[in-house]
Design a protein that fits this description.
The chain is an alpha+beta fold. The chain has helices at about 5-20, 20-55, 70-80, 95-105, 110-115, 140-145, 160-200, 205-210, 215-255, 270-300, and strands spanning about 60-65, 85-95, 130-135, 150-155. The chain folds into two domains: about 5-55 and about 165-300, no CATH class; about 60-155, 2-Layer Sandwich (Alpha-Beta Plaits), CATH 3.30.70. It is about 70% helix and about 10% strand. A four-stranded antiparallel β-sheet has the order 2-3-1-4. The relative contact order is 0.17.
Amino acid sequence: MKISTFGYTIKQGIKNIWTNKMFSIASIATMAACIFMFGMFYSIVINFQHVVKDVESGVAITVFFDDGTTQDQIDAIGQEIAMRSEVSSFNYVSAEEAWEEYKLEYFDGDEAAAASFGTDNPLAGESNYEIYMEDISQQSSLVSYLEGLDHVSRVRQSEMVANTLTDFNRLVSIVSAVIILILICVAVFLISNTVRTGIAVRKEEIGIMKVIGATDYFVRAPFIVEGILIGLIGAAIPLIILHAMYGRIIEYVANRFGFLNNLLTFLPVDTVFQILLPVGLILGVGIGYIGSRVTVRKHINV
């Protein structure tokens, strides 16, 4: 592509936007609204998923051993657990440690009741492995594997919690996909209408260009540039606004609802926009390109 041709294409694309100011502003505003809603929804979803992931990380599978299992056999089981891809971490809890934790949880403030057991350990033989996973949806397969290991007497799992969290993640993914698809369709439709209006305004000019032998690219490119610029501008504006709003919203929630600080941990703005910024810009440019390209192919026969 010649530099002069490239410059002409960009110039005409900008000119098209300026010529059709009302339609262009409407398309940019709609694109901005779509990207803004997408950004808001994405920020909410990614924070919800972060909270769910925190909950998942605290859900453990507990593995107990047969009576008479030696420490070497327990260590061997630990080595097999460590090799499983589903496992993020695990730790060994001896019978003595289990009893100390039990006393703190159930005899807090009633030390006399705990002391009445003397040196007896009611949880003797209850040593176990606590196993944590990155993805709780893999719990059932891991439990099946653990139940088949030698010297394992029983495996305790939080099946209801696992199913609830798995279903919630699946629901969030489906809803996210549907909303994003709707937003994309609306934006493509509006950009298509804007480009179509530009084609109608320049109908005579396009006819003259075709008569004097202008190439397909030379005729179509300015309208595609117009769609891309509308998509880019329409994506950049809401992303800048969202970046400024996100930090303030987190600060407001933290100050206004202090009790949530112990329950929720919001992702920092840099972490959210590390993905949202490039995805939002690419989405805007992509929607602009698709909308203009489809319209140009349909309404300009060269």
